[in-house]
Amino acid sequence: NQGKLWGGRFASGPSPELEALSRSTHFDWRLTRYDLAGSHAHARALGAAGLLTSDDEAALHAGLDALARRHEAGELHPDPSDEDVHGALERLLLEEVGPELGGRLRAGRSRNDQIATLLRSYLLDHSLVLSRLLLDLVTALAEQARAHLGAVMPGRTHLQHAQPVLLSHHLLAHAWPLLRDVDRLADWRRRTAAEAPYGGGALAGNSLGLDADLVARELGFAHGPTNSIDATSSRDSAAEFAYVCAQAGVDLSRLAEDVILWSTHEFGFVRLHDSWSTGSSIMPQKKNPDIAELARGKAGRVVGNLTGLLTTLKALPLAYNRDLQEDKEPVFDSVDTLEVLLPAVTGLVATLEFDTARMAALAPQGFSLATDVAEWLVREGTPFRVAHELAGACVRRCEELGCGLDELTDEQLAEISPALTPRVREVLTVEGSVASRDGRGGTAPVRVAEQLEELSVAVERA
Ligand code: ARG
């Protein structure tokens, strides 16, 4: 059992089949930097507890630094016989500083409190990367919104024409959820950085007088474990992180679906930039929205990562169980997926070319100003129930005549109701319609301009 972290009570080494199953270095090796940082902090705690002389402690720090340098130079590798990153790094440290000194470092810690801490550290760092990438996309959406202030489009519910809205309003409706994802990550960081599991040992805490708060602070956490069982066996922090990633994936997929629809021949709302779209190997004319489709597809993957992790955690007895080793791949995959996806979606959005003339032409179609007629009648004193009926009757008449609401003659309007005087025409334009929706959060240009400012301030603060 050379190179293993256990073995004293075993008469034979692990079978190759067990080793193959058990090994996690192919995915946990990415935690090397964090494992070494944990070991530095732990060496300090051992020194402070009088379990290492200052010379020994210094030699351990030097050995760990040497490993870090070799790692950065790409010269440090796990061995097939290493079970996990912790075992591999202990083996390498022993080679570096000798078995006598190297063998002292493990006192009072377990891979259980180590891995729980390392995973938090890794995710904390990547949450900052993800926040930055999400903010880049929010900024790209805001820039498009600013560049098209005033442009109108058909607003839809049930994918049917509903009421005209500003293109900027619609684009910002994709920005706010992404900004909330950034806020969710910040909120998650506050909880996750509060406590480091280090010092929890295997499950019951340590008996060596180690200062867990010292270790926690060294690693950037507020304090050590409050409950060693909880600290070593809970993974709700990882699950919550996976949820935010899944939510961001879903938010991206909804934006992506709009881009996919908008770029169809039938919609014709946007043209994709050549550098941010793809062609077909057989159809020479094709220009495909692959980035958006991959965003839509990868949303399934990040949702799956959350589902898989929660399923692993469900009904696990306390405290640590080896099942928990399955916590890492899903969150690593969500990190990797979003870190490659977000910059591409940002480029796609930043380079979209909108056909605002076409959007404006389509905005009043499908009788999308019928609500404006009803609300005009309400302002003139008609009860809304009646106004709704009358506006509906206008639509029916238009369908019979094959014309638009604004094309009904004064006589045709008066036939439907004397309340429908020619003045109703003042709301029968798209510009009049959007300008009238000036309540808080509405699509009126003044409100959308305010909204854009509000978003910029929120981005600055995030
Ligand atoms: N590699 C394990 C994990 O990722 C940590 C090792 C714990 N092993 C154990 N036998 N207690 O969770």
Automatic annotation (TrEMBL):
One Pfam family per UniProt: Lyase_1
Documented EC number(s): 4.3.2.1
Classification via SUPFAM superfamilies: L-aspartase-like
Classification via Gene3D superfamilies: Fumarase/aspartase (C-terminal domain), Fumarase/aspartase (Central domain), Fumarase/aspartase (N-terminal domain)
Record keywords: Amino-acid biosynthesis, Arginine biosynthesis, Cytoplasm, Lyase
CDD domains according to UniProt: Argininosuccinate_lyase (cd01359)
Involved pathway(s): Amino-acid biosynthesis; L-arginine biosynthesis; L-arginine from L-ornithine and carbamoyl phosphate: step 3/3
InterPro entries cross-referenced by the UniProt entry: Arg_succ_lyase_C, Argininosuccinate_lyase, Fumarase/histidase_N, Fumarate_lyase_CS, Fumarate_lyase_fam, Fumarate_lyase_N, L-Aspartase-like
GO MF, one example: argininosuccinate lyase activity
Start and end residues of each Fumarate lyase N-terminal domain: 17-304
Protein family membership: Belongs to the lyase 1 family. Argininosuccinate lyase subfamily.
PANTHER family for this protein: ARGININOSUCCINATE LYASE
Protein name listed in UniProt: Argininosuccinate lyase
Protein source organism: Nocardioides anomalus
Originating gene: argH
